[in-house]
Each structure stands twice: as C-alpha cells, then as structure tokens.
C-alpha cells in the first residue's frame, strides 16, 4: 500500500495549504488599500461636471470636450462648484498633470497656482506662452493644497496645450490627500517588497534544506534548481521596481530577458529530475523550448524573443500529462505533487469563473487565465511561482518523511539492542543452568543406574519426570531461523518464566521474509506482551498457558496467540478492538497492531470464547521488487 493511503498524516497537507492561503491573504491585505484618488478629468462621453468655455472678445463661449482635446495654444477654462461631499471625504489636495498642459488655478476668482507668475493671471485674460514645453515624460505633476471650507466655492482651471510631445490627452484633474497618498505609497512599496522578501526567504529555506540533506548524507542537487528559481523570482520582482522608476540599483547588470524563461523552467526541470519511467519522454518537451528561448534572449536582435517564449507553454501543458503518468506509476514525489497541481488548477478556474461572473473580469489573475499569450510574462511569473510552491512543499514533506523514517529506524535499532541484551541475559541464565546440570549429570546417571539395577522402575520413572521438568525450564537459545522473531520469542520466554507462565511454541519462520523488522517487531512484541500481561493477572488456581503459532503459507505470514483470561474484556464499539483497563494514555498497542495488519492487506482478528482470548492475523508479505512504502 502506498504512502498516501497508509499514512494518515497526509490529512495535515490541507491544513498546511490552508495556512499558506491565510498567510498569503494576510500579507496581501497590506499591498492594497481602499484609499483612492477622486478623478475629475472630463471625458468625451461626460464632461464630469465641468463647465468648459473659452473667452472671445471678453465673452464666454461654451466649448465641448472634443474642442478642448483638439485645441492647440488656445486657453480654455474648466469651471465647477466643489461640493461638500468632497470636503467631508477628506480630499484636501488638488493634483494636475503639468506634463503636456500649462495651467493656472483659481478658487472663487482668487489665484491659487500658476505655471508662470509673469502672466496676467485673471480669469478671462490668461494667455500661456507657446515656447513653454514642460518636462516631457518626467511626470511633472502639480499638487496644491485646497484652503479650508472650500466646499461651495467655484474652482476654475485655465489650461492650454502648447507642448510638442507626441502624446496628447485631456487635462488630468484629481483630488487626493496626504493620507491617501501615504496609503497608496505604502501599498505600492509592500506590493514590491513583500513578494521579493517571500521569494528570498523561500530560497534561503530551500538552500538550508539542501545543506540539511547533505549533512545527513543525501546530496539532493535538484533542490538547488528550486533554490535558483526562488532567487530569480525575487530578482524579477525587484527588477520590476527599476522598470517603474528611472533609478540605478545593484541589479541593473542582470539580463532581464533570461529571467523570464528561467523563472518557469527551473521548477519544471526539478520535476523532470524527480521522474523515473517517463523522464526521457518528457525531457524534449522541456529542453527544446528552453534552449530556443534562451538563445533568442541572448541574440543582439531579440525582437522575436516573445514568440520563442510562447513555446514555454509546451512543457507546462505536457507536465499535466506526464505528472499523471508518474502518479499512476506510484512515484512517491508525484503521488503528492499531481493531486496538488490539479487542485490548484481547479481552484484557479473556479476563482476566475467567479470573478468574471461577479464583474471583476478585468483583474490581473483572470486576465492571465483568459489571455495567457497577451499577458505572457506576468503569466510565466505566476505559473512559475505556483510550481515553485508545490515543488518546495513536496521537498519539505519528503525531508520530514525521511526524518520520521530515520527516527523509526533508530527506534527499531534501540528495540533490537534491548532484545540483544535480554537475549544475552537469557543465554547467561541458560548457560549457568546447563553448567550446573552438567556438573550433576554424572550423579544423575549413577542414581538412575542404581535404580535400574535395583529394579525400582516406579522410582526411576518419577526421577526421570522430575529431571525432564527441570530441563524444560531452561530457555531455548534458538526458536526459528528469523533473527528478530527468535529474539522476540526468546525474550517472551524469559519474561513468561519470571511470571510462572508456560509457553507452547509452534514457530516456523524462515530468515528471508519480506516484512520489515520494524513492523514485525511492533506486531509480535505487542501480541506477546499483551498475552503475558493478561496471564499474569490470572488467579493462582487458573492454568497459565500461552500458545504462540507462527508459520508461512504461500505469501502469508500467520501469527496467532491464545491464552486464558479472567472475565470479559471491554470492546471499543467503533474499532472492535479490546480497550485497555489502565485508563487514559494506554491501549495504543491494539490500534498499532491493527494498523500494521491493514498495511499488509489483512485484519487483526480478536475474539473471546470460553475464557480464552485469541488474537490472529495473516500478513500478505510484499513482493521484494515492490516494497511497501
């Protein structure tokens, strides 16, 4: 039976995934804010509350938004009354785009701001010089604080388009506040810093896992691929910051184009190395697109690099097929990875469908699912992050599983050492008794010879019976060929002797059975200890006899203990197993034996008839070519 079915701890994985989701949700809450600017920019469909006009010979002449857009050098006026809702909402800062428009601002006719103090800054007389061109492309935003109690006053903006830049648009007008700007600044910084820090932390954890495995004698070089993928994802996020701002940072020397395919392909290469049967079939789907993509980015003319990058979807789609094939072949890595991958796919499709149905179809996440080619690089970073998370999770689970196996092996070794010590003590006791009997052997022989010559057959028979009983009390040194079974039964014989319990053995177990020593030791030790403990509690008048039967028939190892009992044992209604009489903290032996029986396609049978308890099971011994995990 495979690991997932035999180890109940697999149910912890959904809790781990839930914890990751909650942590992601918590951290993401600091990358968004409800604070937003109030956009008052007029549009072609709606003047957005503005009264737009220009002055001709001292007379107002109404103008349309289209005329404002098509103007060149003429001064237009945008006028509106500021309502109380704006002031109550905390909007205190007026923001204008001074990149392509020259502007002067008035509040109830009083000048608040002008791009040129030398002008005749009166409403109706403002004429902006044509030689002004601003600072194209540098985001020359104008911010001015509105005076208190501005509600109900008339805001007038004189604007003229006199620049030579190619881009043309309507004059941007929006309201904000220091609080809004601070919240937006913090959320923007967190949107860059938190993912970068998370990926860097993942890289350090994976690197630590590599050194941990190396320290314990396992050089898991494939984990270095995940480490590099996490580092690249972190660099990609940081380099995005450099794209937004014309600043110099330490990462300017990194060829950004190479990070795009590597962020996706490195986790896929890690999964390729974990494959067994289908590795050589999956390799061409990865290597060919990766080589083409890297070559395209390294060439001087990288105009067709994006077309080559589109080929990287091929290994991503092929992974879904080969992951299922490896899962069917009972690959331990893909027994974990494949269900998690398809769970993520289902959750992603469900979330995208929900967002589209609720009118949030323009989100980046939905766009990546709906238009993976258009949003190519964002999609690669997202898909690469998902594969990194799943691959890293599988690596850590395997490390925990290996550590648990190591601890189990150490426990078995400790139990074996304990058995060896007890066997040494039994051997010493047997040797001492044999030495004594050897010393008395000559006397016994002379006595029997005298009784025989005297013709006293009755006394000779009694003497032989007494001598036989004394010999039977000496623990045997060899019960069967299997070393662990031999040690456990010898230990039980010594323990039974101390409790004045007679053990009848029917044990035939070869040395080469395929059941691991750990499971065999746990099952047999619990069965014998439980039986001896039950017999030790019997009243003095009852016979204390323990019957142990073990033999191999075909691929089954049969194990059975029979012993008298005192009274009726308590039974658990759910499991059908006997309950311990010792109270809380006890009774785990029965469940452990039952779990081992299930692991080997069997059932632990327990029944009580006529004051006799029988515990038996028949373990299906695994094929040595396909051991139980």
Compute the separation of the termini in Å.
7 Å
Q: Counting H and I runs of at least 4 residues, what is the number of helices?
A: 17
- Main sheet, how many strands, which sense, barrel? 6 strands, antiparallel
* Mean residue pLDDT: 80
Strand order of the largest sheet: 3-2-4-9-6-7
Poorly predicted parts: 1-7, 572-576, 579-587
Report strand %.
Answer: 5-15%
Give the fraction of residues assigned to helices.
Answer: 40-55%
Give me the Rg, rounded.
Answer: 42 Å
Strands, total number: 15
Indicate the structural class.
alpha+beta
Give structural notes.
- The chain is an alpha+beta fold and 629 residues long.
- Helix content is 52%, strand content 14%.
- The chain contains 17 helices and 15 strands.
- A six-stranded antiparallel sheet has the order 3-2-4-9-6-7, with no helix packed on it.
- A hairpin with a 2-residue loop joins strand 14 and strand 15.
- Helix 6 runs antiparallel to helix 13, helix 8 packs antiparallel against helix 10 and helix 15 packs parallel to helix 16.
Question: What is shown here, in short?
Answer:
The protein has 629 residues and is an alpha+beta fold. It contains 17 helices and 15 strands.
Give the arrangement of secondary structure elements:
Elements: H1 3-6, H2 12-28, E1 38-39, E2 51-56, E3 59-62, H3 65-70, E4 76-81, H4 84-88, E5 93-97, E6 102-107, E7 110-114, E8 141-145, E9 154-160, E10 173-176, H5 178-215, H6 222-244, H7 256-274, H8 279-298, H9 305-310, H10 313-328, H11 332-357, H12 364-370, H13 376-453, H14 457-472, H15 483-498, E11 502-508, H16 517-536, E12 545-553, E13 556-564, H17 588-599, E14 605-609, E15 612-620
Parallel strand pairs: 11-12
Antiparallel strand pairs: 1-10, 2-3, 2-4, 4-9, 5-8, 5-10, 6-7, 6-9, 12-13, 13-15, 14-15
């Amino acid at each position: 039976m495979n690991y997932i079915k035999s180890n109940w701890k697999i149910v912890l994985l959904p809790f781990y995934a839930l914890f990751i989701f909650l942590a992601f949700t918590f951290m993401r809450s600091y990358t968004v804010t409800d604070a937003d600017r109030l956009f008052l920019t007029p549009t072609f469909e709606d003047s957005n509350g503005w009264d737009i006009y220009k002055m001709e010979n001292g007379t107002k002449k109404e103008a349309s938004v289209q005329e404002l857009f098509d103007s060149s050098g003429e001064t237009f006026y945008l006028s509106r009354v500021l309502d109380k809702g704006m002031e109550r909402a905390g909007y205190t800062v007026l923001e204008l785009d001074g990149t392509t428009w020259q502007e002067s601002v008035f509040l109830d006719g009083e000048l608040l701001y002008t791009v040129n103090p030398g002008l005749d800054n009166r409403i109706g007389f403002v004429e902006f010089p044509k030689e002004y061109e601003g600072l194209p492309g540098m985001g020359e935003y104008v911010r001015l604080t509105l005076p208190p109690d501005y509600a109900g006053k008339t805001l007038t903006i004189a604007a003229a388009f006199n620049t030579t830049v190619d881009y043309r648009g309507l004059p941007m007008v929006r309201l904000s506040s220091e609080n809004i700007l601070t919240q937006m600044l913090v959320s923007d910084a967190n949107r860059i810093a938190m993912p970068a820090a998370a990926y860097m932390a993942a890289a350090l954890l994976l690197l630590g896992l590599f050194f941990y495995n190396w320290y314990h004698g396992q050089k898991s070089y494939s984990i270095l691929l995940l480490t590099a993928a996490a580092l690249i994802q972190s660099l990609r996020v940081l380099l995005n910051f450099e794209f937004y701002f014309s600043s110099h940072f330490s990462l300017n020397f990194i060829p950004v184009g190479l990070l795009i395919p590597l962020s996706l392909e490195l986790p896929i290469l890690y999964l390729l190395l974990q494959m067994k049967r289908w590795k050589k079939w999956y390799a061409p789907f990865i290597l060919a697109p990766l080589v083409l993509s890297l070559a395209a980015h390294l060439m001087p003319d990288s105009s067709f690099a994006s077309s080559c990058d589109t080929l990287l979807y091929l290994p991503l789609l092929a992974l879904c097929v080969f992951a299922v094939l490896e899962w069917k072949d009972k690959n331990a890595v893909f027994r974990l990875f494949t269900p998690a991958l398809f769970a993520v796919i289902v959750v992603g499709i469900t979330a995208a469908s929900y967002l589209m149905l609720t009118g949030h179809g323009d989100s980046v996440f939905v766009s990546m699912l709906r238009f993976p080619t258009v949003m190519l690089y964002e999609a690669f970073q997202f898909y690469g992050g998902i594969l990194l998370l799943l691959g890293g999770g599988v690596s850590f689970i395997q490390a925990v599983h290996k550590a648990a196996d190591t601890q189990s092996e150490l426990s078995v070794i400790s139990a074996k050492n304990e058995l060896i010590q007890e066997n040494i003590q039994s051997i010493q006791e047997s040797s001492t008794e044999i030495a004594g009997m050897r010393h008395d052997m000559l006397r016994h022989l002379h006595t029997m010879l005298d009784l025989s010559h005297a013709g006293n057959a009755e006394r000779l028979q009694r003497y032989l019976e007494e001598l036989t009983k004394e010999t039977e009390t000496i623990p045997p040194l060899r019960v069967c060929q299997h070393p662990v079974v031999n040690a456990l039964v010898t230990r039980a014989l010594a323990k039974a002797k101390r409790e004045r319990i007679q053990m009848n053995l029917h044990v035939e177990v070869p040395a080469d059975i395929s059941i691991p020593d750990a499971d065999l030791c746990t099952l047999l030790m619990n069965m014998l200890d439980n039986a001896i403990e039950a017999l030790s509690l019997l009243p003095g008048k009852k016979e204390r006899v323990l019957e142990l039967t073990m033999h191999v028939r075909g691929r089954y190892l049969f194990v059975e203990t029979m012993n008298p009992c005192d009274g009726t044992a308590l039974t658990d209604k759910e499991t059908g197993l006997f309950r311990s009489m010792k109270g809380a903290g006890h009774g785990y032996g029965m469940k452990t034996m039952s779990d081992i029986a299930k692991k080997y396609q069997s059932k632990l049978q327990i029944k009580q008839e006529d004051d006799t308890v029988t515990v038996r099971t028949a373990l299906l011994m695994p094929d040595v070519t396909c051991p139980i995990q």
